Amino acid sequence: MYVIIRRYRVAEEHQASFLRHYNDDGDWAALFRRDPAFKGARLLRDAQGGGAYLGIEYWESLTAYERFMRLNAAACAELDARCEALASERTLLGRYIHPA
Question: Are 71 and 28 in contact (CB under 8 A)?
C-alpha cells in the first residue's frame, strides 16, 4: 500500500467548495476511482478548527500511482487549476508505504 498525506489550510469562505472537491467522495476521489489501483481517500479536519485539513490517499503501489498520474496528467492538471484558489496552503507531508 502506498499512502500520500497532504496538509491544507482553507479559509472559511472556501470550505464548502473545498469539501466538494477534496472530501472522501469528492471530485478528486472520483477522478482517482477511474483506476482500480486507487484504494480510497480520507479527508480529516483539525478538531481544533482553524481551517486545517489532512488529505490521505491510498494506492495499491507507487508504480500504480505514478502510472495513473502519467496517464491522467491532463485531467489532474485541469482539476488542480479549478481547486488552486481554495486552499491558502498545500503541503505534501509525506509518502509512505505499509510495512507488509
Answer: no
pTM for the whole thing? 0.91
Q: Which CATH architecture has domain 2-97?
A: 2-Layer Sandwich (3.30)
The amino acid at residue 68 is: F
Q: What is the DSSP letter of 86?
A: G
pLDDT digits (tens, 9 = 90+) for 38-53: 999 999 999 998 899 9
Q: In the chain, what are the helix, strand and coil shares in percent, each to the nearest 5?
A: 40, 35, 25
Residue (of 16, 42, 14, 15) closest to 28 by Cα position: 42
